[in-house]
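User: I'm curious whether this sequence folds into something compact or stays loose and floppy. Could you predict its structure so I can see for myself?
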Amino acid sequence: MKLLHNQLFRWAIFFIVLLGAGFFADNNYYLDILITIVFYACMASAWNIVGGYAGQVSVGHVAFLGLGAYTSTILFLKLGVSPIIGIPLGGVVAMALALGIGFLTIRLHGPFFTLSTIAIAEILLVLAIRFHGLTGGSEGLNIPYEPSVYNVVFKSYFVYYTLFVALMAAIVAVISYINTSRTGYYLRAIREDETASSSLGVDILQFKLRALLISAFFTGVGGALYAQYLLFIDPHTVFTVAFSTKVAALSIVGGIGTVIGPIVGSFILTPLEIFLRSQFGGTYQGLYLLIYGVIMLAVIVLIPKGIYGTFVDSKNRNRR
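Assistant: Here's the prediction. I'll summarize afterward.
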């Protein structure tokens, strides 16, 4: 109980400091950077539920992000449904997709599951382009800039920032619960050895599917909220597989299968990418991607357990 109280206290301090950083940001440029960092921390944490805990490496996770974004935006533009309702509905629709594809793909292992998720994301990309009347096709959809709570459109970047921090707090709360619950123990056991877990009576398909559904819901909500922030979506933005590889990399570099690992990865690598792009993006096209890739590769090779995982191991060794 004391450990739980200490964890709650540390997380409360972390989120208070995080909100304070946004409140005292000098201008919208810095707030935009903070929003980007927190958004990717949310998405990496959501991916970590299925990729880190269940060991199911999804590279098509962007399908849930795009579906959530399009659900909320289409409901708002075509039917006048407020994003207050549309954003959580985006998560529910993403979860429905996860349920459907889960029965088809969750039995697959290793690269076969990964390839199937890529295929699903690519199918949704093609459908979003083809159904021009509904999705706007390649031109995308613009959300009118009409600030109001009903429209979930705001003049202040800090309001958006607060919403993303709230989403991050919700994801952290759910993962913290999973981490210490029976579900978390079963998922880690499945990740390490499915055969042994099955022989001990663990319902592998049920717990894998449960992880996928939770992960898809938060990814869909994050996509819908991000669409409201950008006020624009198009297929090549919300259905690109590059997004999935990025959030997976953030989680792996930070430390998969941990609550804080994906957050650490995002808070280190996202500002690094922004800095490299600002320094080299205009002068030497593609150079920032090369430097960023080399740094990520070095981290993965030198500390395969990730930054936070390596820190925990070092701390435990020192205690001995």
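Summary: Residues 116 and 255 are 24 Å apart (CA to CA). The longest helix spans residues 204-230.
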